[in-house]
Specification:
Layout: H1 2-6, H2 9-35, E1 38-39, E2 51-52, H3 55-70, H4 75-96, H5 101-112, H6 114-117, E3 124-127, E4 131-134, H7 137-158, H8 164-182, H9 186-206, H10 215-235, H11 245-249, H12 251-266, H13 279-285, H14 290-313, H15 324-348, H16 356-365, H17 368-373
Antiparallel strand pairs: 1-2, 3-4
Helix pairs in contact: 2-3, 2-9, 3-4, 3-9, 3-10, 4-5, 4-10, 5-7, 7-10, 7-12, 8-9, 8-10, 8-14, 9-10, 14-15
Length: about 375
C-alpha cells in the first residue's frame, strides 16, 4: 500500500484507460461496420450475428494515451510502446485482410525485435538454488523474442469466446502491476495497470453477448504488452522467485496453446489451422454457457495469479530460513490453484484415461457377465 500511495499514477492510469476504452469502443465498432471488418457466423465462430472486430484499436489508444500522460517515457518504455504499436498494426492488417501465416509471423517477429533494441531483453535472472545467471546477448535476445512471439500467439488463440481474452489479460495486467510495483519497477507497474484498465473497459462491450471483438489487433497488441512487461518488470530482477511468476500468471493461455498445438501435431494438422479444440470450446461441449465458461476460466486464471502473489508477498523463506506458518499459507494457496486446475482437467476430460466418470459409465453400460468377470 505504501508503494501505491507513493505512485498514484498506477491507479490514475488504470482509470483513464478504462474510461477511454469504454467511450471509444462504440465509435471503433461503427467504423469497422462501415469498412466491412466484421466476423460473420460461420464454421468455428460462436457468434450468431455479424460482429465488428478491430476492437484492438480502441484498446491500443486506451493504453497509449494514458501512457503518454503518466509515464516518463524512458528508453525501455518507448521500446515497449513502439513494439506494441507495430504488433497492433500487424493485427489490424490481418483483421482487414487475412494474412498468410508466414507473413503474420514475420510481422510478429518484427514487433518482438523492437524491445531488445531498447534494452528490454532477458540479460540476467536469478534461478533458485543456482543464484544469478547472466545471459549473453546471443542467447538473451532470441529468447526474449521467442517469448514475446509465443505470448502474442497464445493470447490470439485464447480469443475465441466473448470476454475471455480481455478478462484473462486484465487479470494478468493487474497481477503484473502489483508484482512490478513491489519490485520497485514503477514504469512497468503503471503500464501494466493501464493494460488492466483497458481490458476491463473493453469488457463493457465484449462480454457475452459481445457487441465488438478485439480481433487480432487487440490479441497481438495485448499479448505483446504482457510478454514485454513481464520481461521489463519481473524477469530482469535479482529476486529468486520471480522467474516462475510470469509462467503462473499466464498459465491459462500457455496450457490452452500447449493442448491445442499438441493435438494438431498428433493429427498431422497445421499448427495455424483453426479448429474447436481450445479449452473454451471444450467447456461449451460440456454444457457450459458462454458466460459461465468465460467466468470459470477467469477464476482459474485468478487462482494461479493468487499463487504468484502469495509466492511473492508471503515471506515463507525470509532470511534464508523456512518459516512454518508462512510456508503452510503459501502451500495452501498453491494447493487451491492446483485443485482448480485438476477440476478443469476433470470437467473437460483432458486426460480421458484417468477420468473416473468415463470408467464408471463404461462399467454401468457393460453386460452383467462382463462386470462379474472384471
Amino acid at each position: 500500500m505504501d508503494a501505491l500511495r507513493a505512485n498514484p499514477e498506477v491507479l490514475y492510469g488504470a482509470v483513464a484507460a478504462l474510461a477511454i476504452v469504454i467511450l471509444l469502443t462504440p465509435a471503433v465498432g461503427g467504423m469497422a461496420r462501415l469498412l466491412g471488418v466484421v466476423d460473420r457466423p460461420e464454421g468455428r465462430r460462436l457468434n450468431l450475428n455479424p460482429v465488428p472486430r478491430l476492437g484492438g484499436l480502441a484498446i491500443f489508444f486506451g493504453i497509449f494515451v494514458p501512457a503518454l500522460a503518466f509515464l516518463e517515457l524512458g528508453r525501455e518504455t518507448r521500446g515497449v510502446l513502439l513494439g506494441a504499436a507495430v504488433a497492433t498494426v500487424v493485427g489490424a492488417i490481418d483483421d482487414f485482410r487475412v494474412l498468410r501465416p508466414g507473413r503474420k509471423l514475420a510481422g510478429q517477429v518484427v514487433a518482438a525485435s523492437i524491445p531488445p533494441f531498447f534494452d528490454v531483453w532477458i540479460d540476467h535472472f536469478t534461478f533458485p538454488l543456482l543464484g544469478p545467471v547472466t545471459l549473453p546477448a546471443l542467447v538473451g535476445i532470441p529468447l526474449t523474442m521467442l517469448w514475446i512471439v509465443a505470448v502474442m500467439n497464445m493470447v490470439n488463440f485464447l480469443d475465441g469466446m466473448d470476454g475471455l481474452a480481455a478478462g484473462v489479460c486484465g487479470i494478468a495486467g493487474a497481477t503484473f502491476a502489483i508484482l512490478s510495483l513491489s519490485l520497485g519497477k514503477v514504469d512497468p507497474a503503471i503500464l501494466s495497470a493501464i493494460v488492466a484498465g483497458a481490458c476491463l473497459g473493453f469488457l463493457r462491450h465484449n462480454f457475452f453477448p459481445a457487441r465488438i471483438f478485439m480481433g487480432d489487433s487487440g490479441a497481438l497488441g495485448l499479448g505483446f504488452l504482457l510478454a514485454a512487461l513481464s520481461v521489463q518488470g519481473l524477469l530482469k530482477t535479482a529476486s529468486t522467485v520471480v522467474l516462475v511468476l510470469p509462467l503462473l500468471v499466464l498459465a491459462v493461455p500457455i496450457l490452452d496453446t500447449s493442448f491445442v498445438v499438441a493435438r494438431r501435431l498428433k493429427h498431422g494438422q497445421r499448427v495455424s489451422a483453426a479448429d474447436q479444440a481450445h479449452l473454451h470450446f471444450r467447456f461449451l461441449r460440456r454444457g457450459f454457457s458462454q458466460r459461465r465458461a468465460a467466468a470459470t476460466m477467469w477464476a482459474w486464471c485468478a487462482t494461479l495469479a493468487g499463487a504468484a502473489l502469495a509466492t511473492r508477498f508471503i515471506p515463507f523463506r525470509a532470511g534464508g530460513e523456512w518459516h512454518l506458518w508462512e510456508t503452510v499459507a503459501v502451500a495452501a494457496i498453491a494447493l487451491a490453484a492446483l485443485a482448480f486446475s485438476l477440476y478443469v482437467v476433470y470437467v473437460l476430460e483432458i486426460v480421458k484415461l484417468s477420468n473416473p466418470r468415463r470408467f464408471w459409465r463404461a462399467r454401468r453400460d457393460a453386460p452383467a457377465e462382463e462386470r462379474r468377470s472384471a
